[in-house]
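Sequence, please.
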Protein backbone atom coordinates (compact mmCIF):
# COMPACT_ATOMS: atom_id res chain seq x y z
CA UNK A 1 0.00 0.00 0.00
CA UNK A 2 2.87 2.33 0.88
CA UNK A 3 4.45 1.57 -2.49
CA UNK A 4 1.27 2.51 -4.35
CA UNK A 5 0.98 5.75 -2.36
CA UNK A 6 4.58 6.59 -3.12
CA UNK A 7 4.12 5.98 -6.85
CA UNK A 8 0.96 8.10 -6.86
CA UNK A 9 2.78 10.93 -5.07
CA UNK A 10 5.70 10.70 -7.48
CA UNK A 11 3.39 10.85 -10.50
CA UNK A 12 1.52 13.77 -8.99
CA UNK A 13 4.71 15.75 -8.39
CA UNK A 14 6.03 14.86 -11.83
CA UNK A 15 2.76 15.95 -13.43
CA UNK A 16 3.02 19.31 -11.69
CA UNK A 17 6.58 19.74 -12.98
CA UNK A 18 5.46 18.97 -16.54
CA UNK A 19 2.57 21.42 -16.32
CA UNK A 20 4.83 24.48 -16.00
CA UNK A 21 4.53 26.61 -19.15
CA UNK A 22 6.63 29.38 -20.66
CA UNK A 23 4.95 32.44 -22.16
CA UNK A 24 6.42 35.18 -24.31
CA UNK A 25 5.39 38.79 -24.87
CA UNK A 26 6.98 41.17 -27.36
CA UNK A 27 6.34 44.91 -27.30
CA UNK A 28 7.72 46.71 -30.34
CA UNK A 29 6.89 50.32 -31.04
CA UNK A 30 8.68 52.78 -33.25
CA UNK A 31 6.39 55.63 -32.11
CA UNK A 32 5.67 56.77 -35.68
CA UNK A 33 6.29 55.33 -39.16
CA UNK A 34 9.19 57.77 -39.64
CA UNK A 35 10.84 56.56 -36.42
CA UNK A 36 10.02 52.88 -36.70
CA UNK A 37 13.44 51.50 -37.59
CA UNK A 38 13.75 48.26 -39.49
CA UNK A 39 15.91 47.05 -36.60
CA UNK A 40 12.84 47.02 -34.32
CA UNK A 41 11.05 44.61 -36.64
CA UNK A 42 14.22 42.55 -37.04
CA UNK A 43 14.60 42.27 -33.24
CA UNK A 44 10.90 41.41 -32.90
CA UNK A 45 11.17 38.57 -35.39
CA UNK A 46 14.43 37.23 -33.95
CA UNK A 47 13.07 37.20 -30.40
CA UNK A 48 9.86 35.54 -31.56
CA UNK A 49 11.81 32.78 -33.33
CA UNK A 50 14.04 32.39 -30.26
CA UNK A 51 10.92 31.93 -28.13
CA UNK A 52 9.71 29.26 -30.51
CA UNK A 53 13.12 27.54 -30.55
CA UNK A 54 13.10 27.32 -26.75
CA UNK A 55 9.75 25.52 -26.87
CA UNK A 56 7.22 28.30 -26.27
CA UNK A 57 4.00 27.48 -28.10
CA UNK A 58 2.80 29.84 -30.79
CA UNK A 59 -0.45 30.43 -28.89
CA UNK A 60 1.59 31.40 -25.83
CA UNK A 61 3.36 34.30 -27.59
CA UNK A 62 1.74 37.72 -27.80
CA UNK A 63 3.28 40.36 -30.08
CA UNK A 64 2.26 44.01 -29.81
CA UNK A 65 3.42 45.89 -32.89
CA UNK A 66 2.77 49.37 -34.40
CA UNK A 67 -0.93 50.31 -34.65
CA UNK A 68 -2.03 46.69 -34.91
CA UNK A 69 -4.01 47.26 -38.10
CA UNK A 70 -1.71 45.47 -40.53
CA UNK A 71 -1.65 45.73 -44.30
CA UNK A 72 -0.07 48.90 -45.67
CA UNK A 73 -0.06 50.44 -42.20
CA UNK A 74 2.85 48.20 -41.23
CA UNK A 75 5.61 50.62 -42.16
CA UNK A 76 9.09 51.45 -41.00
CA UNK A 77 12.21 53.36 -41.87
CA UNK A 78 14.70 51.39 -43.93
CA UNK A 79 18.30 52.53 -44.01
CA UNK A 80 18.13 55.35 -41.49
CA UNK A 81 17.68 55.83 -37.77
CA UNK A 82 16.01 59.23 -37.64
CA UNK A 83 13.03 60.92 -39.23
CA UNK A 84 15.10 63.90 -40.33
CA UNK A 85 16.82 61.64 -42.87
CA UNK A 86 13.66 59.95 -44.09
CA UNK A 87 12.87 62.28 -46.97
CA UNK A 88 16.28 61.89 -48.63
CA UNK A 89 17.77 58.56 -47.55
CA UNK A 90 14.96 56.23 -46.60
CA UNK A 91 11.69 54.74 -47.69
CA UNK A 92 8.68 53.41 -45.84
CA UNK A 93 8.00 49.73 -46.47
CA UNK A 94 5.45 47.13 -45.45
CA UNK A 95 6.44 44.01 -43.53
CA UNK A 96 4.84 40.57 -43.14
CA UNK A 97 2.48 40.19 -40.19
CA UNK A 98 3.47 36.56 -39.84
CA UNK A 99 6.75 35.92 -38.04
CA UNK A 100 6.79 32.25 -39.05
CA UNK A 101 6.51 32.75 -42.79
CA UNK A 102 2.93 31.54 -43.24
CA UNK A 103 -0.34 33.43 -43.70
CA UNK A 104 -1.26 33.67 -40.00
CA UNK A 105 -0.62 37.06 -38.41
CA UNK A 106 1.45 37.00 -35.23
CA UNK A 107 0.89 40.71 -34.53
CA UNK A 108 -1.95 40.21 -32.07
CA UNK A 109 -2.35 43.67 -30.53
CA UNK A 110 -1.22 47.26 -31.15
CA UNK A 111 1.74 48.73 -29.28
CA UNK A 112 -0.50 51.09 -27.32
CA UNK A 113 -1.59 51.30 -23.67
CA UNK A 114 -4.88 49.65 -24.58
CA UNK A 115 -3.06 46.93 -26.53
CA UNK A 116 -0.76 46.15 -23.61
CA UNK A 117 -3.65 46.01 -21.14
CA UNK A 118 -5.64 43.73 -23.46
CA UNK A 119 -2.63 41.44 -23.87
CA UNK A 120 -2.29 41.01 -20.12
CA UNK A 121 -6.04 40.48 -19.74
CA UNK A 122 -5.78 37.60 -22.23
CA UNK A 123 -2.67 36.22 -20.52
CA UNK A 124 -4.30 36.16 -17.10
CA UNK A 125 -6.95 33.79 -18.44
CA UNK A 126 -4.42 31.01 -19.14
CA UNK A 127 -1.19 31.55 -17.21
CA UNK A 128 -0.91 29.63 -13.92
CA UNK A 129 1.11 29.84 -10.72
CA UNK A 130 4.63 28.54 -11.29
CA UNK A 131 4.67 29.48 -14.99
CA UNK A 132 7.25 31.79 -16.57
CA UNK A 133 6.73 34.94 -18.63
CA UNK A 134 9.44 36.61 -20.72
CA UNK A 135 8.56 40.17 -21.78
CA UNK A 136 10.80 41.65 -24.47
CA UNK A 137 10.59 45.39 -25.16
CA UNK A 138 12.22 46.99 -28.21
CA UNK A 139 11.82 50.41 -29.77
CA UNK A 140 12.22 53.79 -28.10
CA UNK A 141 12.44 54.78 -24.44
CA UNK A 142 12.03 58.12 -22.69
CA UNK A 143 13.92 58.90 -19.48
CA UNK A 144 10.94 60.59 -17.82
CA UNK A 145 7.90 59.08 -19.53
CA UNK A 146 8.90 55.43 -19.85
CA UNK A 147 8.44 53.14 -22.86
CA UNK A 148 7.48 55.04 -26.01
CA UNK A 149 4.38 53.58 -27.67
CA UNK A 150 2.66 54.07 -31.01
CA UNK A 151 1.50 57.56 -31.97
CA UNK A 152 3.59 59.16 -29.23
CA UNK A 153 1.89 57.48 -26.27
CA UNK A 154 3.87 56.27 -23.24
CA UNK A 155 3.84 53.47 -20.70
CA UNK A 156 5.52 54.02 -17.34
CA UNK A 157 6.89 51.48 -14.90
CA UNK A 158 3.85 52.04 -12.68
CA UNK A 159 1.55 51.15 -15.58
CA UNK A 160 3.42 47.91 -16.21
CA UNK A 161 3.42 47.11 -12.50
CA UNK A 162 -0.40 47.22 -12.46
CA UNK A 163 -0.49 44.62 -15.24
CA UNK A 164 2.11 42.38 -13.58
CA UNK A 165 0.08 42.48 -10.39
CA UNK A 166 -2.77 40.80 -12.27
CA UNK A 167 -0.69 37.66 -12.74
CA UNK A 168 -0.87 34.75 -10.28
CA UNK A 169 1.39 35.25 -7.27
CA UNK A 170 4.02 32.65 -8.16
CA UNK A 171 4.49 33.53 -11.84
CA UNK A 172 8.11 34.49 -12.57
CA UNK A 173 8.51 37.36 -15.02
CA UNK A 174 11.68 38.21 -16.92
CA UNK A 175 11.78 41.64 -18.60
CA UNK A 176 14.39 42.15 -21.33
CA UNK A 177 14.79 45.58 -22.91
CA UNK A 178 16.39 46.97 -26.03
CA UNK A 179 15.43 50.62 -25.58
CA UNK A 180 17.00 53.83 -24.34
CA UNK A 181 16.81 54.21 -20.53
CA UNK A 182 15.55 50.62 -20.20
CA UNK A 183 17.07 50.41 -16.70
CA UNK A 184 14.19 52.45 -15.30
CA UNK A 185 12.16 49.21 -15.32
CA UNK A 186 14.51 47.79 -12.68
CA UNK A 187 12.33 49.46 -10.07
CA UNK A 188 9.87 46.63 -10.78
CA UNK A 189 12.37 44.14 -9.35
CA UNK A 190 10.97 41.84 -6.68
CA UNK A 191 11.08 38.15 -5.80
CA UNK A 192 9.11 37.25 -8.93
CA UNK A 193 10.24 39.93 -11.40
CA UNK A 194 13.75 40.42 -12.76
CA UNK A 195 15.01 42.79 -15.44
CA UNK A 196 17.85 42.58 -17.95
CA UNK A 197 18.17 46.05 -19.47
CA UNK A 198 20.47 47.02 -22.32
CA UNK A 199 20.93 50.50 -20.81
CA UNK A 200 20.48 51.96 -17.34
CA UNK A 201 18.07 54.81 -16.57
CA UNK A 202 20.67 57.46 -17.40
CA UNK A 203 21.86 56.47 -20.86
CA UNK A 204 20.54 56.20 -24.36
CA UNK A 205 21.40 53.29 -26.61
CA UNK A 206 22.68 53.93 -30.10
CA UNK A 207 22.39 50.94 -32.41
CA UNK A 208 22.35 50.37 -36.12
CA UNK A 209 18.95 51.13 -37.70
CA UNK A 210 18.80 47.81 -39.51
CA UNK A 211 20.09 45.38 -36.90
CA UNK A 212 20.70 45.17 -33.15
CA UNK A 213 24.01 43.41 -32.36
CA UNK A 214 22.97 42.63 -28.77
CA UNK A 215 19.60 41.09 -29.72
CA UNK A 216 21.13 39.20 -32.65
CA UNK A 217 23.71 37.64 -30.36
CA UNK A 218 21.25 37.08 -27.52
CA UNK A 219 18.69 35.27 -29.67
CA UNK A 220 21.39 33.21 -31.41
CA UNK A 221 22.55 31.95 -28.00
CA UNK A 222 18.99 31.18 -26.90
CA UNK A 223 18.30 29.23 -30.08
CA UNK A 224 21.42 27.12 -29.60
CA UNK A 225 19.90 24.33 -27.55
CA UNK A 226 23.25 22.61 -27.09
CA UNK A 227 24.65 25.37 -24.88
CA UNK A 228 21.39 26.03 -23.01
CA UNK A 229 22.54 29.06 -21.00
CA UNK A 230 20.43 31.03 -18.55
CA UNK A 231 18.86 34.30 -19.72
CA UNK A 232 21.53 36.30 -17.88
CA UNK A 233 24.38 34.15 -19.23
CA UNK A 234 23.03 34.47 -22.78
CA UNK A 235 22.75 38.26 -22.43
CA UNK A 236 26.22 38.54 -20.89
CA UNK A 237 27.73 36.50 -23.72
CA UNK A 238 25.97 38.61 -26.35
CA UNK A 239 26.64 42.08 -24.97
CA UNK A 240 30.36 41.78 -25.67
CA UNK A 241 29.63 42.70 -29.31
CA UNK A 242 27.68 45.84 -28.39
CA UNK A 243 29.82 48.60 -26.87
CA UNK A 244 26.90 50.63 -25.48
CA UNK A 245 25.23 47.61 -23.88
CA UNK A 246 28.53 46.32 -22.51
CA UNK A 247 29.12 49.67 -20.84
CA UNK A 248 25.66 50.74 -19.65
CA UNK A 249 23.57 47.58 -19.23
CA UNK A 250 21.86 47.10 -15.89
CA UNK A 251 20.18 44.02 -14.45
CA UNK A 252 18.00 43.58 -11.40
CA UNK A 253 21.08 42.28 -9.61
CA UNK A 254 23.02 45.49 -10.38
CA UNK A 255 20.05 47.51 -9.17
CA UNK A 256 19.62 45.45 -6.01
CA UNK A 257 23.30 45.58 -5.05
CA UNK A 258 23.41 49.35 -5.57
CA UNK A 259 20.50 49.76 -3.19
CA UNK A 260 21.51 47.24 -0.54
CA UNK A 261 25.30 47.12 -0.44
CA UNK A 262 27.08 48.95 2.39
CA UNK A 263 27.86 52.59 1.67
CA UNK A 264 31.55 51.88 2.12
CA UNK A 265 31.33 49.33 -0.69
CA UNK A 266 32.82 51.65 -3.28
CA UNK A 267 34.98 48.93 -4.83
CA UNK A 268 38.23 50.80 -4.36
CA UNK A 269 40.21 48.06 -6.07
CA UNK A 270 40.39 49.82 -9.40
CA UNK A 271 43.80 51.25 -8.47
CA UNK A 272 45.66 48.14 -9.59
CA UNK A 273 47.63 50.25 -12.05
CA UNK A 274 48.97 52.40 -9.21
CA UNK A 275 49.61 49.58 -6.75
CA UNK A 276 49.11 46.24 -8.54
CA UNK A 277 50.85 44.01 -6.01
CA UNK A 278 49.14 45.77 -3.12
CA UNK A 279 45.75 45.43 -4.79
CA UNK A 280 46.35 41.73 -5.41
CA UNK A 281 47.28 41.10 -1.78
CA UNK A 282 44.30 43.15 -0.57
CA UNK A 283 41.89 41.28 -2.85
CA UNK A 284 43.21 37.89 -1.80
CA UNK A 285 42.91 38.88 1.87
CA UNK A 286 39.33 40.05 1.36
CA UNK A 287 38.32 36.84 -0.42
CA UNK A 288 39.86 34.77 2.36
CA UNK A 289 37.95 36.71 5.02
CA UNK A 290 34.64 36.38 3.17
CA UNK A 291 35.20 32.67 2.60
CA UNK A 292 35.88 32.13 6.29
CA UNK A 293 32.81 34.17 7.28
CA UNK A 294 30.52 32.21 4.98
CA UNK A 295 31.93 28.84 5.97
CA UNK A 296 31.07 29.53 9.62
CA UNK A 297 27.40 30.14 8.89
CA UNK A 298 25.19 27.35 10.19
CA UNK A 299 21.80 28.85 9.35
CA UNK A 300 19.32 27.93 6.62
CA UNK A 301 21.24 29.98 4.05
CA UNK A 302 24.39 27.83 4.35
CA UNK A 303 23.67 25.79 1.23
CA UNK A 304 23.01 28.98 -0.72
CA UNK A 305 26.21 30.47 0.65
CA UNK A 306 28.27 27.51 -0.44
CA UNK A 307 26.69 27.35 -3.90
CA UNK A 308 27.10 31.01 -4.71
CA UNK A 309 30.47 31.31 -3.01
CA UNK A 310 31.83 28.68 -5.37
CA UNK A 311 30.38 30.59 -8.31
CA UNK A 312 31.80 33.89 -7.09
CA UNK A 313 35.23 32.45 -6.35
CA UNK A 314 35.31 31.03 -9.86
CA UNK A 315 34.50 34.45 -11.29
CA UNK A 316 36.88 36.26 -8.96
CA UNK A 317 39.73 34.13 -10.25
CA UNK A 318 39.45 36.10 -13.47
CA UNK A 319 39.98 39.30 -11.51
CA UNK A 320 43.11 37.87 -9.91
CA UNK A 321 44.50 36.85 -13.28
CA UNK A 322 43.72 40.30 -14.58
CA UNK A 323 45.64 41.97 -11.78
CA UNK A 324 48.48 39.50 -12.13
CA UNK A 325 48.71 40.50 -15.78
CA UNK A 326 48.78 44.12 -14.70
CA UNK A 327 51.63 43.30 -12.31
CA UNK A 328 53.48 41.67 -15.18
CA UNK A 329 52.90 44.76 -17.27
CA UNK A 330 54.42 46.92 -14.53
CA UNK A 331 57.43 44.61 -14.41
CA UNK A 332 57.74 44.84 -18.17
CA UNK A 333 57.70 48.64 -18.09
CA UNK A 334 60.43 48.65 -15.45
CA UNK A 335 62.52 46.22 -17.52
CA UNK A 336 62.03 48.35 -20.61
CA UNK A 337 63.21 51.45 -18.75
CA UNK A 338 66.24 49.54 -17.48
CA UNK A 339 67.02 48.40 -21.03
CA UNK A 340 66.69 51.94 -22.37
CA UNK A 341 69.04 53.14 -19.67
CA UNK A 342 71.64 50.46 -20.48
CA UNK A 343 71.43 51.17 -24.20
CA UNK A 344 71.94 54.87 -23.58
CA UNK A 345 74.88 54.08 -21.34
CA UNK A 346 76.30 51.72 -23.98
CA UNK A 347 76.18 54.37 -26.72
CA UNK A 348 78.36 56.74 -24.70
CA UNK A 349 80.79 54.12 -23.35
CA UNK A 350 84.17 52.96 -24.53
CA UNK A 351 84.50 49.72 -26.50
CA UNK A 352 85.75 47.94 -23.39
CA UNK A 353 82.78 49.09 -21.32
CA UNK A 354 80.43 48.24 -24.18
CA UNK A 355 81.63 44.64 -24.15
CA UNK A 356 80.85 44.46 -20.44
CA UNK A 357 77.36 45.92 -20.96
CA UNK A 358 76.49 43.74 -23.96
CA UNK A 359 75.54 40.56 -21.98
CA UNK A 360 73.25 42.58 -19.68
CA UNK A 361 71.54 44.25 -22.62
CA UNK A 362 71.14 40.94 -24.48
CA UNK A 363 69.70 39.20 -21.42
CA UNK A 364 67.23 42.01 -20.73
CA UNK A 365 66.18 42.24 -24.37
CA UNK A 366 65.47 38.49 -24.50
CA UNK A 367 63.48 38.74 -21.29
CA UNK A 368 61.36 41.53 -22.73
CA UNK A 369 60.78 39.54 -25.90
CA UNK A 370 59.52 36.56 -23.92
CA UNK A 371 57.27 38.80 -21.83
CA UNK A 372 55.81 40.32 -25.00
CA UNK A 373 55.04 36.88 -26.38
CA UNK A 374 53.39 35.70 -23.18
CA UNK A 375 51.63 38.91 -22.24
CA UNK A 376 47.98 39.30 -23.04
CA UNK A 377 47.64 42.16 -25.51
CA UNK A 378 44.70 43.60 -23.58
CA UNK A 379 45.74 44.67 -20.11
CA UNK A 380 42.70 46.44 -18.77
CA UNK A 381 41.45 47.64 -15.45
CA UNK A 382 38.61 45.92 -13.60
CA UNK A 383 35.52 45.90 -15.79
CA UNK A 384 31.97 46.54 -14.66
CA UNK A 385 31.23 42.81 -14.51
CA UNK A 386 34.25 42.15 -12.31
CA UNK A 387 33.34 45.01 -9.99
CA UNK A 388 29.86 43.52 -9.65
CA UNK A 389 31.43 40.22 -8.62
CA UNK A 390 33.23 42.00 -5.80
CA UNK A 391 30.04 43.83 -4.86
CA UNK A 392 28.26 40.49 -4.52
CA UNK A 393 31.03 39.09 -2.36
CA UNK A 394 30.89 42.05 0.00
CA UNK A 395 27.11 42.00 0.08
CA UNK A 396 27.05 38.33 1.06
CA UNK A 397 29.31 39.11 3.99
CA UNK A 398 27.14 41.87 5.47
CA UNK A 399 23.59 41.07 4.28
CA UNK A 400 20.66 40.52 6.62
CA UNK A 401 18.50 37.40 6.38
CA UNK A 402 15.79 39.39 4.59
CA UNK A 403 18.26 40.83 2.09
CA UNK A 404 19.69 37.38 1.43
CA UNK A 405 16.23 36.02 0.72
CA UNK A 406 15.65 38.76 -1.86
CA UNK A 407 19.12 38.30 -3.33
CA UNK A 408 18.68 34.57 -3.90
CA UNK A 409 15.24 35.12 -5.44
CA UNK A 410 16.70 37.61 -7.94
CA UNK A 411 19.59 35.28 -8.67
CA UNK A 412 17.21 32.37 -9.24
CA UNK A 413 15.13 34.49 -11.61
CA UNK A 414 18.12 35.67 -13.63
CA UNK A 415 19.62 32.17 -13.76
CA UNK A 416 16.48 30.70 -15.35
CA UNK A 417 17.16 28.52 -18.40
CA UNK A 418 14.48 28.58 -21.09
Amino acid sequence: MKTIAFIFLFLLINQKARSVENYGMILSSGKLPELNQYGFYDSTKKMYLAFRATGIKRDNITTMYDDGKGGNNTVMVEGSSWARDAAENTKLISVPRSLEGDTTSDMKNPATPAGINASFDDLVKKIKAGDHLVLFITGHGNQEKGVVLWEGQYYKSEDLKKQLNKLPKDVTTHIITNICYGGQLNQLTNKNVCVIANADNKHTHDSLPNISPIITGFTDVLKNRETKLSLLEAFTAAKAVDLDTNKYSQTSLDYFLEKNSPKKNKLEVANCYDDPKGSLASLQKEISAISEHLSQDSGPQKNHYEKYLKEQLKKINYNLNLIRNTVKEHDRVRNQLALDKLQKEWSSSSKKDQEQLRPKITLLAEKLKKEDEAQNTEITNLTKAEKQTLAEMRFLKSATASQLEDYYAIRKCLDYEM
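Residues 331 and 371 are 9 Å apart (CA to CA).
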